[in-house]
Write a structure and sequence with these properties.
By secondary structure, this protein is an all-alpha fold. It is about 60% helix and about 0% strand. The longest helix is centred in the N-terminal third of the chain and has 15 residues, at about 50-65.
Length: about 170
């Protein structure tokens, strides 16, 4: 099994187990969802009613950010390894969450997220030399390359009031 399949399978298990914070079908369109299940040879288990309600609520909360999510997914797709789709969609969806990205994905640590990123988005890992937190890194990179659609909080990290938060070591 390649690295991307491992991570897709892991995220799927975390989603089904209720540890990951995703909307219904992990935010994927029905065709992409079915394609993922077929690719991984998985059969969708029955989901507890409480989990279905949670997924529906997350979907409602994320609905207003669908354009932002789509832009992020398109940007991530540019750095995605050839075998890792639809990881860019999953990472973009989880990035709309309210916790650290690794927590919204249901992963055990920020280090585990870096492993996922190394396998599926190695170019972004190389660009994130200072180990900035991933959501902040995504938006900082998009801001630097945008045509004014994304607002940056400061002209550079050196001038940003949150620099110590972005680059601080996280305890797991």
């Amino acid at each position: 099994m390649n690295g991307a399949d491992y991570w897709l399978r892991r995220l799927l298990a975390l989603y089904w187990g209720g540890q990951a914070h995703f909307p219904v079908r992990m935010g994927l369109p029905a065709v992409a969802w079915q394609g993922l299940l077929v690719r991984l040879g998985c059969v969708e288990p029955a989901i507890a009613p409480g989990q279905i309600e949670q997924q529906a609520l997350i979907g409602l909360l994320l609905h207003s950010r669908r354009n932002e999510r789509q832009q992020l997914a398109q940007w991530l797709a540019q750095s995605l390894t050839a075998d890792a789709a639809p990881m860019h969609e999953l990472i973009a969806t989880a990035s709309m969450g309210f916790d650290h990205l690794w927590q919204d994905l249901g992963l055990d640590s920020r280090a585990e997220l870096r492993e996922l990123m190394s396998d599926c988005f190695p170019e972004l890992v190389r660009l994130n030399q200072q180990n900035m937190r991933w959501k902040k890194f995504f938006y900082r990179q998009q801001c630097m390359r945008s045509l004014g659609e994304i607002v940056c909080r400061a002209p550079s990290c050196e001038q940003c009031c949150e620099k110590s938060l972005c680059f601080a070591e996280e305890s797991d």
